[in-house]
């Protein structure tokens, strides 16, 4: 297999560190000499490329945040001339100006190779038929996967999003064996296929999912419903796009390609956490030409997994993303993360993994939190007292974790909207939103 690359995937730790150091020095020089705003920040700290004498020197370097990209919108952090940019992608800009990322020809080739490596690791082969059911365009997920699938040599079905019935028809007609979409949309595909009596006509074997947090319980549901192996993927446009990290067939943490990205998981004081402890994922790109970012604060919360994986790969590993640092909700002075709610409902058999959090403000100006959850089909007995018991059970479990009284609304399975993009978990109406 061309994209099984043991030279990098099973590299000895010291050999990897030597390679990372070499590439870090090059990246720092590239940023310092070609990005004026970054040079100013380095100069303010009295640091230059010559001060990078080991990987430990990285801790002295300034961090980069999303605001830095927005403040230099659109191309201010590019480290190559505009004529060398062959493609741009951009965020939606819901938090202000969009973040724009650029790619050279080499960047596109690197990205394609990384994605092909990821897909092989997840068991995809060149005789697979791969349906890419995500948005194409400025969103990185579509073309990022597309180029990787083609690089691997599998048949690509660029279905995009929408028209779920047609998506399922293509899966049956073309003999699709692998799919990429958000986990919430995959659940909707499974539900629709069941309603259309098409589940037994599917040829799916592999599902690659990302774009939103999802739980082990969701994995079990997807694997059971679609008869697949479900793999988590992680990426962000600021680093490259999808493919920064990916699960192998062990499904035990995500491998981060250390030859392309340097990984830090930091606590609130900026210190590296120990194995198993959660913190914010901070990444440094080591091979990106157009937009090399140093110590980029992703805002994603994860755990560092240092032990060697059962697959034999020696790359750094992280847990699935546990939530966002900026997803924290403050309700009556208490900090709440949506991931806490997800973990609670994942362990309750009477309800599905689908949920929405609705925040309101009562007439007496107190915050009210309601969690809408879907009742499993076999949990509905028709007895109101049974429904009341389920609701009370969910409320008690949430209160024990969140330390706040939570209203629970039970709704019919399928009531919470599924989309081909990221699901809307939070509806905050406290300020008339």
């Amino acid at each position: 297999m061309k994209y099984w690359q043991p030279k990098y995937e099973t590299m000895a730790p010291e050999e990897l560190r030597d390679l990372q150091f070499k590439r870090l020095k090059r990246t720092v020089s590239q940023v310092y000499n070609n990005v004026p705003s970054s040079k100013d920040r380095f100069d303010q700290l009295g640091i230059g490329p010559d001060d990078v004498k080991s990987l430990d020197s990285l801790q002295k370097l300034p961090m980069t945040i999303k605001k830095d990209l927005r403040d230099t919108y659109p191309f201010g952090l590019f480290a190559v001339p505009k004529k060398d940019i062959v493609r741009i992608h951009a965020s939606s800009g819901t938090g202000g100006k969009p973040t724009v990322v650029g790619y050279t020809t080499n960047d596109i080739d690197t990205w394609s190779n990384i994605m092909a490596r990821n897909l092989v690791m997840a068991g995809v082969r060149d005789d697979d038929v791969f349906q890419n059911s995500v948005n194409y365009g400025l969103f990185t997920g579509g073309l990022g996967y597309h180029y990787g699938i083609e690089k691997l040599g599998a048949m690509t079905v660029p279905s995009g999003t929408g028209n779920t019935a047609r998506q399922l028809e293509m899966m049956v007609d073309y003999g699709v064996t692998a799919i990429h979409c958000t986990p919430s949309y995959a659940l909707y595909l499974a539900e629709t296929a069941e309603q259309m009596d098409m589940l037994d006509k599917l040829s799916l074997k592999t599902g690659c999912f990302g774009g939103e947090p999802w739980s082990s319980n969701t994995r079990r549901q997807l694997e059971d419903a679609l008869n697949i192996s479900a793999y988590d993927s992680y990426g962000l446009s600021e680093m490259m796009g999808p493919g920064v990290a990916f699960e192998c067939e062990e499904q035990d943490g995500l491998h981060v390609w250390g030859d392309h990205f340097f990984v830090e998981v930091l606590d609130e004081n900026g210190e590296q956490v120990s194995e198993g402890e959660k913190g914010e994922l901070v990444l440094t790109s080591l091979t990106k030409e157009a937009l090399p970012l140093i110590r980029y604060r992703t805002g994603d919360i994860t755990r560092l997994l240092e032990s060697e994986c059962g697959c034999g790969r020696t790359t750094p590993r992280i847990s699935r993303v546990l939530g966002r640092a900026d997803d924290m909700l403050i309700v009556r002075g208490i900090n709440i993360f949506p991931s806490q709610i997800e973990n609670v409902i994942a362990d309750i058999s009477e309800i599905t993994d689908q949920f929405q959090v609705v925040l309101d403000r009562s007439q007496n100006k107190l915050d009210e939190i309601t969690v809408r959850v879907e009742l499993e089909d076999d949990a509905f007995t028709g007895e109101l007292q049974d429904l009341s018991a389920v609701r009370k059970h969910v409320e008690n479990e949430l209160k024990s974790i969140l330390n706040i009284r939570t209203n629970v609304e039970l709704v019919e399975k399928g009531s919470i909207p599924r989309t081909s993009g990221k699901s809307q978990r939070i509806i905050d109406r406290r300020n008339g939103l």
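DSSP finds eleven helices and 20 strands in the chain. The mean pLDDT is 91.
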